[in-house]
Amino acid sequence: MALTLYIASSNPGKLRDFRVAAAGQEIVVLPLPGLENIEPPPEDADTFEGNATEKAIYYSRFLPGEMVMADDSGIEVDALGGAPGVRSARYAPDGNNNRYLLQQMAGVAASERGAQYRCVLAVARDGRVLLSAEGSVRGRIMDAPRGNGGFGYDPLFYLPGLDRTTAELDDRARWDLSHRGNAFRALLTKLASYVSEIKAAP
User: Fold this and answer.
1) Are the CB atoms for 151 and 73 separated by under 8 Å?
2) Phi/psi of residue 27, nearest 5 degrees
3) Tens digit of pLDDT for each residue in 145-186?
4) Based on the structure, what is the number of domains in the chain?
5) Most exposed among 10, 15, 106, 126, judged by the fewest C-beta atoms under 10 Å?
6) 17 vs 6, 45, 142, 176, CA distance in Å?
7) DSSP characters for 105-142?
8) What are residue 195's phi and psi, to 5 degrees?
């Protein structure tokens, strides 16, 4: 019997990625019903872990008895002291995050443009966190966007080993290498153990 995991996100890119990863697993990934009518929580924690946990707890109360997963993710740039970090989605005053990041990085040498994508996932049920997992991937910030795939900072996030930005990868390759993919694979392992323990319980 498949396990249903409800995702507290309306971001089509994230939902697509999670569904790709769950394909072939005994897990059905669905968006949280009625999410568009739920007032979102403030997301005011100063860590990805804090925000993911708070969101999972909050949204799980709207779907009693079910597993609800929330995430917080973003990009941390070495030369900016880890910024934008938890403010990745709302970094730019005018909403154009990529252009603003390029402005902040103007004049920074190629050797100093290291960065990482990070993602933390948390699963809660009835207001209690059951599991969490984290994933990351290292790269560097380009001085101009490349590629049309992905979303967010993907056109600026360069993977030296592939000579590609994440926006130049297809969906499968991007998921196989991404912070979100790494986090979700770690979570799937924990979910499998959790379900096994539940089944084995007297």
Assistant:
1) no
2) -135, 130
3) 999 988 899 999 999 999 999 999 998 898 889 898 899 999
4) 1
5) 106
6) 14, 25, 24, 10
7) TTT--GGG-EEEEEEEEEEEETTEEEEEEEEEEEEEE-
8) -65, -40
- Specify the CATH number for the domain of residue 196: 3.90.950.10
Q: Are strands 3-7 and 67-77 parallel, antiparallel or unpaired?
A: parallel
112-to-108, 136, 143, 145 alpha-carbon distances in Å: 6, 19, 12, 18
pTM of the predicted structure, to 2 decimals: 0.90
pLDDT for the residue 21:
75
Residue 169: closest CA among 142, 147, 153: 147
Amino acid at the residue 65: G
For the chain, give the mean pLDDT.
Answer: 91
- Residues forming beta bridges with residue 3, ordered by sequence position: 27
Residue 183 tokens read as 């986090």
Calpha distance 55→39 (Å, rounded): 11
**Tell me, what's the pLDDT at 200?**
65
Domain that holds residue 145: 3-200
